[in-house]
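chain below, 449 aa
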Amino acid sequence: MGTTGPDWQQLTTDSDGEDEASLVEPEPTVDVYKKWRNNAGFWLLGLCNNFAYVVMLSAAHDILSHQKAPSGNGTIPTPPSITPGNASNTSRYDCNIISTGAVLLADILPTLLIKFSAPFYIHLLPYGLRVIICILTALGSFLLVAFSAGPAQSFTGVVLASVSSGLGEITFLALTSFFDSAVVSAWSSGTGGAGLLGALSYLGLTQAGLTPQHTLLTMNVIPIIMLASYLLLAPPSHDPRWCWGVHPPGSLHSPPSSHQPLLGSATTHQKNPESQGRNISLQEKGQVVKGLLKYLLPLAVVYFAEYFINQGLFELLYFREAPLTHAEQYRWYQMLYQAGVFLSRSSASCVRIRYIWALAVLQCLNMVFLLAAVYFMFLPSVYLVFVLIVYEGLLGGASYVNTFHCVSAESQPKHREFAMGVACVADTLGISLSGALAILVHNYFCRLS
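prediction:
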């Protein structure tokens, strides 16, 4: 009996150790699951957020020319009041009456307005309400453009796509500040995936025989996926900070510690939402913006150059001897550009670039080369343009993801949410300027005989 005591005590100790180990063991698994859920959630949100924006740019040539597709490819006849291509045949370029830069402006100016004005009101809107607005405007954009009876309705649909994308970007990028920095890569990869899948799906479905109208109607599933991903990954509905309640991030009402924010992360408790969301003085905001300029200015230049190429030059880079029609060449340009963007936006875990200005220089050189190619028409093949466009997309995607990684890494926790929201203005500003210039350049080239 005397020996049973120690044995029993040892057995109890071992048992307790096993029980304690069994309680501690699952924690890494839970952390891995939460990280996976965070990354998957932000990837889906990035995909759905940018999808309508990308599709409108891919469909820009069709929207302006009302060419549904080639005759053997599910086309419905062009309305007699709309003449596709260069109606006068006096120009050496096959031009639409309106530049695709006009579609770009309709697709980006509302976004720019939202991003500039958001600091004055965005804190009053809970995240759930913002997501609902994004979903409804995306649905409206596809429906209006699909059933368009004229340019005004088409451009209204494009504007709604811009509202959805702009509000979504500033919302979800601000949301990343509450999580591990890895979700920035997931969001960035998702937006790149939107570019690739959006352009590829539009190209593939029209090539398969669907009219652009039917193609756009099938894409109404994307806003539904956004809603499903938000609802499935959201915290309990009684948590007001992240769902439908009246207290948005930045309020003085912090959630109970037992509640997790959207796509709750194990790192959330390390990043106190209340401390991040506190009011930042105007002077502090000015200092934050000043410190970000070394990243924001190069990003704006990169996006100015690449969207000038996309909406100012793509339409003019037409090879008559190629086996593809003008509309098909334009769709391929958009798809290959987005493929390059997707690859580079998904590469942040492998390659990090701090010198964003170097990417800006390379993109400007790319723009000058292709501008000369349009004017002098010295490129021998459309396939060479395909290669250059993939390279263009790689530069653009790399500048985007590395800029936001640098901003996230260098911002203080209490400034990070504001900094991420400000940073997303830079690319939009560059795109807006490029759209205005693209219209002027289009008009100039189309007057050349």
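Residues 8-13, 18-26, 67-89, 234-278 have pLDDT under 50 and may be disordered. The radius of gyration is 25 Å.
thats it, cya
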